[in-house]
Amino acid sequence: MTDTAPPSGEQQAPDDVVELRVHGVSGARADQVLDRPNTHQVAGDRSGGFFRPRPGYPDSTGPGGVVLEVYRWSDLPSGTAARTLSLVFLLPFMLSNVAIWMRPARRGPGTGVKVLCRLLALNLTVLYALSAAGVALDLIAWKCMGSSRCLMGRTWLSWLGGHPVGLRLAVLAVVPIGAVGLVWLLGARPGRSYEGFRVPTGDPEGDRLSAVGQWDAMPMVGRLRAIHIAVALAVLDLTLLTARGAGHPSAATVGLAVLAVLVLAAGAALLCAPELLERPGTAHTTDRLTVALRTVACGLTVATLGVVALDRTPWPVSAALPGYGLIVGWAFLAQMALLAALAVLAPWRGRRDGGRALLHGLGAPVIAAFAVGLSSAFSAELVYRTAYFLNRRAITGSPMDLAAPPLAYKWALFTFFLSMIVAALVAAGLTLLSLRSRRRAAAAIVARDFPTAPPEAADRMRRVERTIARARFTEWLGPLAVACACLATVGLATSLLALFGLQPSPLAERLLGVPSGFVNFGLTVGSYLIAGLVLALVMGGLFAYRTAEFRRYVGVVWDLGTFWPRAAHPFAPPCYAERAVPELAKRICYLAERHTGVLLSGHSHGSVLLAATVLQLPPQVRRRVALLTHGSPLDRLYARLFPAYLGRDVLQEVGERVGWRWLNLWRETDPIGGWVFAAHRPGDPPTRAGPSDRVDRRLRDPEDVVAPPSDSVPPPVKGHWPCESDERFAAAVRELADRLRAERRT
Predict the structure, then answer these.
(1) Which strands make up the sheet holding 696-699, listed edge to edge?
(2) Mode of pairing for the β-strands spanning 49-53 and 67-72
(3) Would you tell me how many other CB atoms lie within 10 Å of the CB of residue 394?
(4) Alpha helices in 450-576 (DSSP H)
(5) What is the sign of the dihedral through the CA atoms of 81, 85, 91 and 92?
(6) Which residues sit opposite 597 in a β-bridge?
(7) Where does residue 49 fall: left (phi above 0), alpha (psi -120 to 50 degrees), or beta otherwise?
(8) Burial of 2 (0-12, 13-18, 19+ CB in 10 A)
(9) Residue 293 has what pLDDT?
(10) Other C-beta atoms within 10 Å of 646: how many?
(11) What are the two backbone dihedrals, phi and then psi, of residue 10, each rounded to the nearest 5 degrees?
(12) Whose CA is closest to 19, among 634, 732, 635?
């Protein structure tokens, strides 16, 4: 096949326009997006491919005679059940990575926010390693294997129970080491299919949205990965050496502990130098530093295991692994300090945006708080549930417990229980508080849309009003998220009480008069709530990529989180845009050379992919491209959540790049998509004249509240569903295709 010959199945016409459709989070099949039963793949692979109707079948073209084609990318962030489950368990890491992209719009590189986000991401890795160490070293090796009652009837543990403490700790240290390797594998495995699509140009800050898919993130991810692995191993070593050195430490123990602290300090220092981490290409000095740090940490771990296993000095007598609870408490303290600094710095360094930001400039600290809260909840549940099992399914808080969980985790569970109660009350309060205004606005919209509706349509109109009122709750998600993040932060801060040895039950009874039985009830319920949350995330992750209706709402979280490159946490799921955007750009360039024009049609998140792609097209290609978006969250969500990378200026640039051959269709009933530049509701005052004023077109939804003569039921409410089957969408396709043809002829 030569460079000029079209692939099999692609037919060239002298005056044809290709409509390239990009679906949203629904993950629909190619035949569903094209609304044609017989399709075949013309480019790409199983994960991401381009499809067209089979030639020779009737009705293989679209409105206005355009050539139909679809880019199906839904398997890039998901694909297999294993990948989907990995997204669930990597959720805290993914959220911490999203936080670094949510800084407010301002001049400058935003170094302070980036450094704090990366230090918080590192703290998540530390807490993950500590939770694995808490299960293997504190609960099993130290507490359970040191108790004959705990080992009774457990042959799978008793084989190691009679051996020295040091040997038990050294053997079971393999568990936290393997846990770090597991998340490394889960985070890196899907990224291998993206490697052939990276274009190593530009820099991480780049040209805002155009940086996505344009710069090679792998060198920086490799450096971050080396730092996180080194710090995780150093924390494990410090945990073992602190326990070994309690009482009468040897010179070897002290020396190795000092070296572990130096590794921790070096890892944090490297994260405070963004110019080194973000240097494009293979920066030999930076790479050598991070690899050397990881190598030193690995050697330190081997030496630590040897000292712990072979040192015959008597171990101190203690109910828990010496020093472990203190280390966990300091990790929680570091989290709170970093979150507080980020909450102060992010809005202070941002510029005013007229109140458009969905999280009011607090996007980075809010999402970081959710990441920290989830990580702490997962860690606490893992340790508490293991202790519950080892203690014969009972934790009373008394000294008779065989394997009691550390205090910090008990506080985390109890405050999670309280936070969930308060969060539910806050959500209910905001819902009721906003209900009147949302219903009033919805009633006005419905009255303007259907002024001549007959009396028998009153029930139908009320249902439409309720749908619009629910869709408008999206604007209240910002205050709700900020309130919940504050609750999570306050709740986690109470975990610091563990540093002072304060138990939840007696403190609550002494200060608040709360009976100790309620605290134990809260611990149990909090544990079950977290277990239920994990189960819901697992089931949601599976159903989100197997059920289109469910994915339409849940899948947006995964697709939004994995859209951005890994700039904070190296164990987060890989960025699928690193493949999708370059792949789309290459295909559009190919089509533009062989056809009159290319009409890019994007639904929901597909419009975001297309916006990033348009910013990367060369000038000679952009002159032959038009853009049609529908159900688009470009302004309603992305521009408000990521103002530094996708603000109004970037949207203006997208319009200019395509010569304002851009139409955006939106519905009032859509809870995700909306207008980009102007609402254009009936009765709205005229906006200022300009090309952006002609982009948005509002679609009345439903089309009517009474049944047409040809039907027995009224038209359905479509909400966020794609518009391809709507005649108004077909009219927009014909209009843009005619503009492309006319401009090509002139």
Answers:
(1) 39-44, 49-53, 67-72, 17-22, 597-603, 625-630, 662-667, 696-699
(2) antiparallel
(3) 9
(4) 458-471, 477-493, 504-511, 516-544, 548-561
(5) negative
(6) 17
(7) beta
(8) exposed
(9) 95
(10) 25
(11) -100, 120
(12) 732
Sign of the CA dihedral 485, 489, 492, 494? negative
Q: How far out from the chain centre does Cα 131 lie?
A: 22
By CB neighbour count within 10 A (0-12 exposed, 13-18 middle, 19+ buried), where does 1 fall? exposed
User: How crowded is the C-beta side of 736, counted as CA atoms within 13 Å?
Assistant: 33
For the chain, report the end-to-end CA distance as a whole number of angstroms: 32
Q: How far is 108 from 110, CA to CA, in rounded Å?
A: 6
Stretch 342-369: mean pLDDT: 72
Q: Which helix (H) or strand (E) holds 578?
A: helix 577-594
Average pLDDT over residues 116-125: 95
78-87, 110-119, 438-447, 584-593: least confident range: 78-87
The reported pLDDT for the residue numbered 702 is 92
Judge contact between 406 and 383, C-beta under 8 A: yes
Q: Report whether 373 contacts 533 (CB < 8 A).
A: no
The SS3 of residue 684 is coil
| 621 sits in which H/E element | helix 619-622
Residue 160's CB is within 10 A of a number of other CB atoms, namely 15
Q: Note the pLDDT of residue 201.
A: 43
Determine the pLDDT at residue 231.
96
Three-class secondary structure of residue 16 per DSSP = coil
The mean pLDDT value of the chain amounts to: 83
Q: Is 618 exposed, middle or buried (0-12, 13-18, 19+ CB in 10 A)?
A: exposed
Count of alpha carbons within 13 angstroms of residue 480, beta-carbon side: 17
Per-residue pLDDT of 284-323, as tens digits, reads 788 889 999 999 999 999 999 999 998 888 888 888 889 9
CA atoms of 102 and 95, how far apart (whole Å)? 11
Q: Which 3 state secondary structure label does DSSP give 625?
A: strand
- Count Cβ atoms below 10 Å from residue 303 Cβ, excluding itself: 16
SS3 breakdown of the chain: % helix, strand, coil, rounded to 5?
A: 60, 5, 35
Which SS3 state, helix, strand or coil, does residue 698 take?
Answer: strand
To which H or E segment does residue 696 belong? strand 696-699
Closest to 563 (Cα-Cα) out of 223, 217, 276, 219: 217
Pair of tokens at residue 70: 């679809």
Question: pLDDT digits over 601-653, tens only?
Answer: 999 989 999 999 999 899 999 999 999 999 999 999 888 888 888 888 889 99
Among 594, 593, 664, which Cα is nearest to 626's? 664
Q: What is the pLDDT of residues 468-522, one digit of tens each?
A: 999 999 888 888 888 888 888 887 777 777 777 777 777 777 776 777 777 778 8
Least confident range from 601-610, 674-683, 734-743: namely 674-683
CB 309 within 8 A of CB 166: yes
Measured between alpha carbons, how far is residue 520 from residues 146, 415, 534, 593 in Å? 26, 12, 21, 69
Q: Which of 169-178, 354-363, 521-530, 656-665 shows the lowest mean pLDDT across its residues?
A: 354-363
Phi and psi dihedrals of 578, rounded to 5? Answer: -65, -20
Cα-Cα-Cα-Cα dihedral sign, residues 249, 250, 251, 255:
negative
Where is 52: in which H helix or E strand?
strand 49-53
Q: What pLDDT score does 291 carry?
A: 92
**pLDDT digit string, tens, across residues 518-568:** 777 888 888 888 888 888 777 766 665 555 555 555 556 777 788 888 889
pLDDT computed for residue 653 by the predictor? 92
* DSSP H/E element including 602: strand 597-603
Contact indicator for 673, 631 with CB cutoff of 8 Å: yes
Give SS3 for 167. helix
